[in-house]
Structure formats: C-alpha cells, structure tokens
Design goal:
This protein is an alpha/beta fold. Helices cover 47% and strands 17% of the residues. It has helices at 32-48, 75-85, 97-100, 104-116, 137-166, 190-204, 209-218, 230-237, 283-300, 337-341, 353-389, 395-418, 424-449, 453-470, 480-486, and strands at 19-27, 55-64, 91-94, 120-123, 128-129, 179-182, 185-188, 246-248, 251-253, 261-263, 271-273, 314-316, 323-328, 331-336, 351-352, 487-494, 497-502, 506-511. The mean pLDDT is 77.
Length: 512
C-alpha cells in the first residue's frame, strides 16, 4: 500500500487590507448654484478619507450638469461601473440615492451588479450601507422616493412650459433654419431665408426632394456645414414657422421612466399661435405646398425604409461620405452618397453588393484559419503592455484638485463682478486665463483616463478569439450575424480594394 505524505503549504496568500474607495457625485443642472454644489461635493470627497488607515480614495467620478433619470447620459457613472467590472474598486461613497440614480430600476440593477462583484455602496444622506443590508427593500423604497421626486420635478417643469404656451410668453429654445434668435425672438436670417424661398419655389415647380437636394449641394449651399438631405427638405416644407405662426407641443415628454419624447398625435393639447413673428413664405405658397404633399402622399404612399447589413457601415475613402444602397436592372450596388448627388464632387464609383459580401467571406475565413497566429500573439502583447503600464496614478487626484480650485476661482470672480468689485474687461481677461488652464488639465485627465481604452481593446480581442475558437467551420455564404459582430466599418479604398475595420481596432485590407 502506497504511503501518502501531506505537504503543508509554506506560502500564505497576502490580501491587502486597504479598501480601494471611489466617490460618485452629480448635480443635475449647470447653473452657478448647482456648480457650487458640485464643487462642494468634489472637495468633500477629496478630503473624506485622507486620514483613514483602512480605506484609500482612488478616484472621484463626477457628472456635472447631467440628468440622473437616464443612466446612459452620465459618462463618468458609466466609467465608474466599467472600473468596478475591471476590479479597480472595492467600495463606493455617494451623497444620496437621488445623486446615484433617480430611476428605481437602474438603481436596483446597478446595486445588484455591484453586490455580485463584491463592491459595497454607502449612501450618506440615508445612512444606507449595502455591506450591512440583508435585502434590497430599503434601496427599493428610497429609490422609489427619488424616482417620485424626479417625476414631480418633471411635471412642475412641464406645467410651467404649458402655462407660458397658453399665455403666449413661451420662447423657443432653438431656431429653425432661416431664423436666428435675438432677445428670445425670431429674427430673419436673410441669406438662409432666401434658401428657404428657393426650396418652396423648386418644389412648387415640380422638383422632388432628391432633385432639390442635388441642386443645393451642387451650388455649394450647405446646411450647418453638411450636405442637404431629403428629411431636411421635408421639415422645411411642412414647418408652419415659415409663415410666421407657431405650433407648440408637437412632442410631449412621457411621465414614465425613462423620460422619453414622442410625437404628439392628439393625445395631449397643443397650442397654435398665429402671426407670432415675421414670415419668410406667403400663406398661399405654404398651403399650396401642403396640398401638393398630400397629393403625392396619396398617389405614392409612404415608402418603407429597410435596414440592410451594410447600411451606414460602408464609407468612401475619398470624401468620407456614407455609401447608400442602389438598385438598377435587377442589380444591387452601393454608391458614395456624395458621388450620387453630383459625380463631379467625388470620383468614387459604385461597387456591386455581392463583391463586398465576398470580400467579407474571404476575410472571415482567413481569420478563422489563422487567428492563433494573428490574434493570440496580439492578445499576449497587449496584456504585457497593460502590466507594464498599470500602476496607481497619484497624479489623477492632483489634477482633480487643481481643476476644482480653478473652477472655484472662476465663481469667486463671477461674484466679484456681480457685486461691482470687478469690471467687465478684467473679469473676462481673468476668466479666459482660468478657463484655458482648466481645459489643459481636463485634456491631461482625458489622456490618463483613456488608458482604460486598452482594457476595452483587450476585451474585444478576447471576444474575437473566443468567437473563432467556438466556430466549427468556415463560411461559404454571407453570414449577417457574424458581420454585425465583427465589422465596425468598411472603407472603400478604390474599386479593387476594401479596408475592413474589425472590433478591437484591427484593420484588414481585402481585394475585390
């Protein structure tokens, strides 16, 4: 019978006793008072754990002037959650649940995910610590209260807007093409107004949306620096503001989370104000255009637009414009939208759809057979680079502190100017200097935080390797799901070569 000897472990795993903490703060508007609140939160958390022996503050995540009802609008919150998933954070401090989230669903979802990652959250105002909480009942209650508060605020804001619409004192936030805003009022922009009149004339003369776009673009007339598109022409031809009237509340905000804007098709009252401002188009011409639009709609109906696998993914390497799908003589091809409007503006020619599909199939199969020689060494190199570059960056907190200090100086100057202790010239001179310093520091901050892009690239390379490892065979026909997963963009180099931009920042060229 064999003799078994137990060899006791001689090395014990050392576990750090220092808890890596992060703080999250947010204010929901960019007014001066709220910015001061933002500064106060930022300063507070910078000093919060300065003397602690068991906890260290590694970063402050702060969203300024961002709504709390939509999680996807808060960039720093998303960055914090990403760092949590990467194992960089052990504990989060935040002022209150309403600062963390005003949406109960998102609040619970994030708390559950953080708990699964072993990360605790402490809400100071409510004195709630998820480390000591056996269930989520308190979070649900408090999150519901925060959500109700946000609904109440939204309803109050909407009530105020409706009142101003009813008494005729409502001011539009943005002006349509052809007008500029002066003292809250509509003022005609004469050069743009002439373009609006031209659009109405050409439509009444029988030209369609495409022809009008082509004429404007070929004459070098741009809209906000971009080429004209059909939807912009339709918007102008159907906008009552060009006859001096205003229809308010074309869209409404839902009172359910997340708050969304949708078209008001009669489910809520609207307000029509006649002769509100100087018109650009006569009522006769405007009404004639509406009749013509109705006739065309009844005759041709509304076109159904399809999303194709290549839609918005094929880009012209010559001018940078998107390719669009065309059909001629039962042949499907893709053409540069700029070339399609005016061939003289871009010399890129069309490409048959099947050739793009065949090029993707060829690229896919090359990676399938050679991913171990191409992707695995790249993965190893990125991991080594990450290990060499990863280290605690104490400079991060110093930059945060310096930005906070400079912003505080800006607010002091504003108060001095308001009280008459500082003249306008001196105020603008000093503010300009402070803003320049803040912008420089924020650029440095972005360079530091963008190092995390390496993690995202590595994650995508891992996904690529995992994809090809799980595939059992190459493909012989175009695989839409594989294309959607692998390809971010296709650049048309010329008529015989395409550049495929694959996830993970990889680029491969294929002949066609």
């Amino acid at each position: 019978m064999p003799t078994v000897t137990v060899i006791q472990p001689t090395i014990t795993e050392e576990k750090s006793t220092v808890i890596r903490c992060a703080a999250y703060c947010r204010v929901s508007s960019d007014s001066e008072d709220q910015i001061n609140s933002f500064m106060a939160q930022l300063k507070y958390y910078e000093n919060f754990l300065a003397d602690s022996k068991t906890e260290t503050l590694i970063n402050v995540y702060a969203d300024e002037g961002i709504t709390g009802t939509r999680e996807d609008k808060r960039e720093d919150f998303q960055r914090m959650m990403s760092d949590c998933r990467k194992g960089k954070i052990d504990r989060i401090y935040t002022k209150s649940i309403s600062r963390f989230a005003r949406n109960t669903k998102d609040c619970l979802k994030n708390i559950r995910e953080l708990k699964s990652l072993g990360i605790t959250v402490f809400f100071e105002k409510e004195n709630i610590d998820t480390a000591n909480m056996p269930d989520e009942m308190m979070i649900t209650i408090m999150g519901g209260l925060a959500q109700e508060e946000s609904v109440s605020i939204s309803q109050n804001v909407q009530w105020g807007i409706r009142k101003r619409m009813q008494n005729g004192t409502y001011n539009v936030s943005s002006m349509p093409y052809g007008y500029i805003k002066e003292n809250g009022n509509f003022t005609v922009n004469f050069s743009e107004a002439e373009v609006v009149r031209r659009i109405f004339r050409e439509f009444l003369s029988g030209k369609g949306f495409n022809a009008i776009c082509q004429n404007l673009n070929s004459d070098g007339i741009l809209k906000d620096g971009n080429l004209w598109e059909k939807k912009a022409i339709r918007y102008i031809l159907t906008n009552e503001k060009y006859i001096g009237d205003c229809l308010w509340r074309k869209k409404i905000t839902e009172n359910a989370f997340p708050f969304k804007r949708r078209k008001n098709t009669g489910q809520a009252e609207r307000y029509y104000v006649a002769n509100d401002h100087e018109p650009i188009i006569s009522r006769e011409d405007f009404e004639a255009v509406q009749r013509l639009l109705k006739i065309k709609s009844e005759r041709f109906g509304n076109k159904i637009f399809h999303n194709y696998p290549l839609s918005k993914k094929v880009v012209c390497g010559n001018c940078g414009m998107i390719y669009k799908r065309k059909r001629s003589n039962n042949k499907v091809y893709w053409a540069c939208s700029k070339h399609d409007l005016n061939a003289a503006d871009c010399r890129s020619e069309w490409i048959a759809e099947y050739k793009i599909y065949d090029a993707f199939i060829a690229l896919h199969n090359k990676l399938f057979y050679n991913y171990k020689q191409i992707l695995v060494p790249l993965q190893t190199a990125l991991q080594d680079l990450k290990l060499r570059r990863f280290s605690g960056n104490s400079n991060l907190m110093e930059i945060h502190k310096e930005i906070a200090k400079l912003k505080e100086q800006t607010h002091v100057l504003a108060r001095l100017k308001t009280k008459g202790f500082l003249n306008n010239a001196k105020y603008f001179e000093q503010t300009l200097d402070l803003n320049a310093k803040v912008n420089k520091l924020q650029s440095e901050l972005k360079k530091i935080t963008h190092l995390d892009d390496e993690d995202e690239t590595l994650d995508q390379i891992d996904m690529l390797i995992d994809y090809f490892e799980k595939r059992e065979h190459s493909i012989t026909d175009f695989d839409e799901s594989a294309f959607e997963f692998l390809i971010e963009k296709i650049v048309v180099i010329n008529q015989s070569e395409l550049e495929f931009n694959v996830i993970g920042g990889l680029k491969f060229k294929e002949e066609i």
